[in-house]
Amino acid sequence: MTSPQAPSGAPRPKLPPPESSSPPEGPIHRALLPDTSAITADGHLSVGGVDLLLLAEDVGTPVFVYDEDHMRNRCREAAQGFEAGVAYATKAFLCKAMATLALEEKMALDVSTGGELAVALAGGATGERLVCHGNNKSSEELAAALSVGVGRIVIDSFDEIGRLRALSTAGVASGSASHRPRLLVRVTPGIEAHTHEYVKTGQEDTKFGFSLASGAAAEAVDALRHLADFELVGVHAHIGSQIFEVSAFAEEIAALAPFVVENRFTECCIGGGLGVAYVEGEVAPSITEWARAVHSAARTVGLPLTVRVTAEPGRAVVASAAVTLYRVGTIKRLPGLRTYIAVDGGMSDNPRPVLYGSGYEAFLPRAPLAPRPLAARLVGKHCESGDVIVDDARLPCDLAVGDVLATPVTGAYGFAMSSNYNRVLRPPVVFVSGGRSRVVVRRETVADLLARET
Ligand code: LLP
What we know:
alpha/beta, Lyase, Ornithine Decarboxylase, Chain A, domain 1, 8-stranded mixed beta sheet
């Protein structure tokens, strides 16, 4: 499908450069918008050369709009910054088109369930380019991964080692000697990253991995060395998500290094977790800066150059690539209290504010350069008061019912965690690039909603 493009001609106003910062009531900040954002001759916002208002007319709202070039740029940064084999963490956002895009840009894919494995394969992944994760992989999931010649499995528990041993004995795991699946042992390095409680994973008190400090990790290594059909190659850790300080990753490397050296490992994966800016005033390191900091820490702590230091970013690849377009349906001004603006989506397409108290911005794609003096609470259409998308949104004063409203930086863990709460139909996903748009996931229908009912 091709969306009609805005006419070109007269010189267009430009978005301010990403470096400048604006007050909360100023226009939406450039750094929060997808890379290819521009202003059309009509003064609307376009992404990938596609006018967002025309797109909303075309496909309806709500809709997730992803800037394909933006995601390709981030994948390339990751593939250049880390050695070959850097994996895209598909949990952040996965559909067949995304799997294909990340593979085309030389990334491997990290999958953490049988469902993610199936979508990755449908998107063109071969076993060799898959990294299989999960703290509670079932025998069926492990067998499915082995049957496609999975490249790497990250081992998370003694129970999982038992399951792999049983699959080996049953002959499910026996590949050719040159294609033995590689194993990494997931460890908890005992690092407290500064992020939300629910997305911290590096500390000792966690369901993930084996503790380095208690000796469980060393025990797991012993058991894995005795496992036939597999090759133990390295260590894996993931200290949390939405982390802004690269020093936390340097600490992680320092905690992992002795274990890597002691076991003569050749691979050391630091997981994902690089933060992104969601709201005005936040600044996050780029993937390139992150990779440099990690490699420099590896040299500082004396990791041998032969060790492949790699990572698996999710959020940093996709978060700011997308905007969600909604339509304003109701405006309620409560005198002396606040203004509520309700749109046609909500916590079913973005549960992050209600889950983690995450902040977002909002703006009108018909006037992206307009000041936003109106303070209002942006809410969805779900039947509970917690259904808040932006608690303290700033918007232009002439906002009206019927306006298309956008929330930027919604590319990670939005579509991925979307639900049918209140039997709301999940929005489509549209990729835009070079003046064209394509629906890569169609809008859900009532028939989809009823499809599993007997
Ligand atoms: N690797 C492992 C083993 C992970 O558990 C995760 C994320 C990643 C990589 C990717 O992390 P990222 O680069 O995306 O931070 N739903 C939460 C985030 C949960 C992250 C879970 N694991 C949110 O919306 O903030």
